[in-house]
Design brief:
Layout: E1 17-18, E2 26-29, E3 34-39, E4 43-44, H1 46-56, E5 60-66, E6 69-80, H2 89-106, E7 112-118, E8 125-128, E9 142-148, E10 151-157, E11 164-168, E12 173-178, H3 180-183, E13 184-188, E14 198-204
The structure holds 2-oxoglutaric acid and fe (ii) ion.
InterPro entries: AlkB-like, AlkB-like_sf, ALKBH3, Oxoglu/Fe-dep_dioxygenase_dom
Domain Fe2OG dioxygenase: 109-207
GO molecular function: dioxygenase activity
Length: 209
């Protein structure tokens, strides 16, 4: 289904799971009340997490209407609603750690988990904001863990302005917050480089998609 992912030789920690957040999280304020928080190498044992998710998650190919055609969504998907058991205990630990770190600021917990598998550089997500539900009108947060081959996450203000490129590495955390979903858009562009697979795990509050 996917090409091989070359795990990192350095990733041979005994412990697996999220490392500390705290002061290791770097916030960058963007225009219009948006921000991103970045915590590189947040997940210890990211190689093993990638392998387990690639094998055990019931990945679905989807098709969507685009104008007058039906096209393949260029990535595989899985969605875990708030009462669904997550596919790996490391994701439960990560969600709990995010809730501890962000609950005061967010005012509610992260509840759902969306997973995407980008099989190679041809898989992508087009420019969008997560505006199904409350992200359209309210400040919120979307927390994303990346495992697998690095990919670029692009961000651009909806009103026009320069695009920001953020490289999402193996085990990294990025959190889009404030008005980011409604005043900015994000995308993971296709790449012509020979890339291996990447899995993205997105935690969102209730009624944010
Ligand atoms: O691949 C990613 O990390 C981003 C996915 C995304 O933007 C989405 O599913 O809404
Ligand atoms: Fe998104």
């Amino acid at each position: 289904m996917t090409g091989p992912f070359q795990g990192s030789l350095l990733d041979c920690w005994d412990e697996t799971g999220p490392r500390e957040l705290g002061s290791s999280v770097r916030r960058t304020r963007l225009a219009h009340g948006a921000w991103i928080d970045v915590r590189p190498s947040w997940i210890a044992g990211a190689d093993a997490l990638f392998e387990r998710l690639a094998e055990t998650v019931p990945w679905r190919a989807e098709r969507r209407h685009m104008y007058d055609r039906v096209v393949d969504v260029p990535r595989l998907l899985a969605f875990y609603d708030e009462d669904d058991p997550l596919p790996d205990p490391v994701l439960d630990e990560a969600k709990a750690a995010l809730n501890t770190h962000y609950q005061a600021e967010l005012g509610e917990p992260f509840r759902t988990a969306g997973l995407c598998l980008y099989r190679d550089g041809r898989d992508s997500v087009a420019w969008h904001g997560d505006t199904i539900g409350r992200g359209r009108t309210e400040d919120t947060m979307v927390a994303i863990i990346s495992v697998g081959d690095p990919r670029a996450l692009l961000l651009r203000p909806r009103g026009g302005g320069p695009t920001i490129k953020h490289d999402l590495g193996h085990g990294d955390l990025i959190v889009m917050g404030g008005s980011c979903q409604r005043t900015w858009e994000h995308a993971v562009p296709k790449s012509t480089r020979a890339l291996g697979p990447r899995i993205s795990i997105q935690f969102r509050p209730r009624n944010v998609r």
